[in-house]
């Protein structure tokens, strides 16, 4: 379009011209509307005045119709009343009455026209037959009323000026009541209003022009040049050319800001390119690491499953050990009870052996007494034998008896010695047995204490086995949970790997997008992300 070829200044000037034409058109329309309104006002004033005179005639006609007045008297009264009637600002405007054929009925200024047919006899300033025009206007009018434009000079002047006539027909009397008003003053008022509007419009135009020129200069300073330059730069940037050359512009202007934007955008695109390359490389490394982590996580999950199975077996073994420890505790408790009873029996045996030892010592004493008796008997037998020998033949039998007694005493002494030896040996053995029994009692006490300690240890082992069973159960539960978490981690790692691959693709697309921009005059672009 032709407007596209105009510069910004030309467009602003065109807008100012359009404003001037618009204001001129507004002034003309205002003047025209004012002229119409003033004309309508004058016409309304004329119509209102004539309607008042017509109402006077109609009133008297109604009286004649009603028989209050004769028709001639009513007509005379009506003519007189209308002749005396005046209106207007200075009260000089009058009414006239003509018949519908042009015969004069009443004219306050020209009474001599009464009764005369004035058609063709009254000319206005332009030679128009005024009465004929009134007659023809009434005939061509509607509803018994009509406007007729004439030209008459004002009183004291010879220059004809427009004068508007308005007539109304009085039904039944064949009358036309009318009046006329000059309208040349309307043109003067319109001209004054036109000049006033033109002055206001010119002032407005001057203000608009000054504002437009100031606005143009301000906008040009703010833009820094023609907007077409800014449009060309922005289009180049939109096309991806960030190496576009900008003209020397005013600092702080739009073009300067565009230049700063282009520089910042150039730097941003460069950083985005480097960042997209880094993201692509990092995402590739992340994807590789996620793949390795996924493999290791799956291996860990498999190991955890095996560990869980082993923990299940260990739990079963520990439970069996706990059961065996409880049985061993029961057996140890039984052995402790038996050892305690054995200790009591040994103590009883020790006491019995002490009593036997004491009895053996008493027997030894008795045997000593018997040995003494045998020794005394042997002495007595020896004495008896000596006495028998002294007695001779009389004491021979007594000597034999004494010899036998001596033999018995010797045999008793020998038997007592043997018994004493046997009793001594028994005492020695009983003493050894007592010592052994005492040692056995001490050993049994030690066995009872050891069995008690073993019982306590086995009880502790049983409690520890129970706690180990519970702990291993908790460990087994934790291992199962860890297995589930590891499997979930494996799934998350796979999702992370997929996300890293997606990030890599997005970084590649981002690199391809920013490659559209040319950031140096040679058109160099940074390499894209390897696919």
The span between the termini is 48 Å
- Largest sheet: number of strands, sense, barrel closure: 5 strands, antiparallel
Number of helices: 8
Strand order of the largest sheet: 2-1-5-4-3
The CATH architecture of the largest domain comes to: 2-Layer Sandwich
Q: What is the helical fraction, as a range of percent?
A: over 70%
Number of domains: 2
What structural category characterises the helix and strand content?
alpha+beta
The CATH topology annotation of the largest domain reads as Beta-Lactamase
The average pLDDT is 82
Q: What is Rg?
A: 80 Å
Overall shape:
rod-shaped
The fourth-level CATH homologous superfamily of the largest domain is PAS domain
Query: What amount of the residues lies in strands?
Result: 5-15%
Describe the structure.
The protein has helices at residues 2-5, 8-66, 71-84, 130-140, 184-223, 227-238, 254-391, 396-514, and strands at residues 96-99, 104-106, 145-153, 160-170, 175-182. It has 2 domains: 2-216, PAS domain (Beta-Lactamase, 2-Layer Sandwich); 306-508, Helix Hairpins (Orthogonal Bundle). Helix 6 runs parallel beside helix 7 (254-391). The chain is built from 8 helices and 5 strands; from the N terminus they run αααββαβββαααα. A hairpin with a 4-residue loop joins strand 1 (96-99) and strand 2 (104-106). The chain has 531 residues and is of the alpha+beta class. It has a 5-stranded antiparallel beta sheet, sandwiched between helices. The radius of gyration is 80 Å and the shape is rod-shaped. The longest helix has 138 residues, at 254-391.
